């Protein structure tokens, strides 16, 4: 999984019906210490109530659907946890 | 998911039967603000009626099939929403 | 999906039984206009009767199995259409 | 699969319920001899009781769920073995 | 799929039970002519009895499980054929 920070939101009124009500966020991947930006931001759906500025971890690929407990939802990245601490 | 702009269409009369009737589009990935091109264009199937020039978001991988509500369709990228706004 | 050109074939008599009879091809990815080579060639199975020199589009990942209508076939890239035209 | 070394742990009290009790680790990918770091560290869940400093191999993508024997767990990387030796 | 050469083996006594008895190999990806190394070696499980030095092709992602005829095996790369010849 990827460590990232929530940096914004995406608004889309016309979208797949399985995404209605989803919180679609823009995330910035971070290094493994959760400090420096690393790579380009992209779009993820939130499963844990994360807000802008919070550090999270994100599952990508088919596991993103499990993150939403909906195996028929068209997603490929889901926020599945809010980070308290990283010990390296 | 990826932010992109629809920039063209692909015509193929000989294709897998599950793709008959699909709108096959060429998309240009954009940065997370939805402004600058970022990376190379590729092919995606449209699930939301997006037209050339519109900004969309795209699910890749196995979730692309969910975007088409057809788990047996041979796709790996589907347009699942039209972007109204991005707040970063 | 990826735009590519068929550039050769791979011969393997010892292979997984689900691949027996499959046409295993070498494909060269192309740019989104279907003109210039872009990236490295790789191996794909053909589902639409494409020949060497033809421009095709290719599904990667789990959708490659749907391209062969065989969810138990060990493939990760399948040619699912022959390109007539690209309008960009 | 990827060869890596466990270099730390991630603490998250608010996470998807399927991840409760999981050991979430930070891993550093290594070269194929298991000696030099190669690429950026990322997050994986442990299925074999690996500790910090141990060399492991990691399955990514949908196979990560099989590594946890839980097809509904939202993960994309799981440690599935501890390396004794590499013969190259 | 990827063209590669088997260059070594990985020994792990502590591993996921579905991997017990599996032949875990180190493979070096090759160019599409099967001649020059291209990219970094990684770990794959063997499904066709390939030995060190042989040229093979490898399925990655969820198709790797089909290569082992075991949809619950935690793998993401499986050797599914031994190459006789490449015609480009």
Write structural notes for this entry.
The structure is a homopentamer of 88-residue chains. The first copy, chain A, has 88 residues and is mainly beta. Chain A has a single domain, classed as OB fold (Dihydrolipoamide Acetyltransferase, E2P) (Beta Barrel), CATH 2.40.50. Chain A has 1 helix and 7 strands, in the order E-E-E-E-E-H-E-E. The first copy, chain A, has one helix at 63-67, and strands spanning 2-11, 14-15, 24-29, 42-46, 55-60, 77-82, 85-87. The interface between B and C is medium-sized, with 32 and 29 residues.
Q: How many DSSP helices of chain A?
A: 1
Radius of gyration of chain A: 13 Å
Q: Give, in spatial order, the strands making up the sheet with the most strands of chain A.
A: 1-3-4-6-5
| Portion in beta strands of chain A | 35-45%
| CATH homologous superfamily identity of chain A | EutN/Ccml
At the fold tier of CATH, the topology name of chain A is OB fold (Dihydrolipoamide Acetyltransferase, E2P)
In terms of quaternary structure, the protein is homopentamer
Low-confidence stretches of chain A: none
How many strands, which pairing sense, and closed or not: the largest β-sheet of chain A? 5 strands, mixed, barrel
**Which bin fits the share of residues in helices of chain A?**
under 10%
Named CATH architecture of chain A: Beta Barrel
């Amino acid at each position: 999984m990827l460590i990232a920070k929530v940096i914004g939101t995406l608004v889309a009124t016309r979208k797949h019906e399985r995404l209605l009500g989803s919180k679609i966020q823009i995330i910035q991947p971070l290094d493994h210490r959760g400090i420096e930006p690393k790579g380009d931001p992209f779009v993820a759906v939130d499963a844990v109530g994360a807000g802008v500025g919070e550090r999270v971890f994100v599952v990508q690929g088919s596991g993103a659907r499990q993150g939403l407990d909906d195996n028929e939802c068209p997603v490929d990245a889901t926020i599945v946890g809010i980070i308290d601490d990283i010990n390296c």
